[in-house]
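As a warm-up, study this chain.
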Amino acid sequence: MSNRIAFLGCGSMNEAVMTGMLEAGTEPADVVATVRRAERAAELAERHHGITAIAGEEEPENNKQAATGSDVVILGVKPVGIADLAREISGSLSPKTIVISVAAGVSIAQLEAALPAGQPVIRTMPNTPAKLGRGVVSVSPGTNCTAEQLQLAKDILKGAGTVVEVPEEQVDALSAISGSGPAYAFYLAEAMAAAGVELGLDPDLSLLLARETVAGAGLMLAEPGADPTALRKAVTSPKGTTERAIATFDERGMPAIIAEGARAAAARAAEITAQLS
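Now compare it with the structure written out below.
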């Protein structure tokens, strides 16, 4: 039995989740997305053939229209707009409609307060590799979400990648690792490419080397049972070039720098939650 899924707001994160789900076999006819501009709606409809995309500038009640009759509604607007969106669609929801938020910093309590009493709610934190089906999506069930509803959400979201269940109090920490993590990998590739240029490589060649190396290493990490420590050690021959590089990274405190950055990201997530409340 298929489920109608509405993506309210279809920016980069919601589209990434939607893309992963469609690639995994979700029927396009079961998917409806809302956006503000007609141009964006046409772009989505062309890219994801068979879905319904409704623009707010053409249909002012597009969010209510999409939510009506949907089994799952995924809220993907900016965090500051989540509560208003939840209130907007409240009258269009079935009591059994599962409302999923992908917005950073919006707590379950904040979402439940903006929805009808008893509405099933799930807070999630996906990351952008979801569009390749290689993302990580956390799920944290709300007060009124049953085990069966949580499992349905997991089954739907698994098309976007690995689904992990975490208590809400761990979401900020998770977002600092998997939510922001893709940017860390891209940052590493940028730094590697710049280092290659400094060593005399052509910029285009250096970027190619960095990009393909980081991507290839990621595929190795994706193998079942892969252990990053074991993989690193396998490349790090005693007294070799890689060992010298790793030793330099350790001397400069790179592990501590990464940990500090993750703490800063988690702290910022907590700040956003406080601001929104």
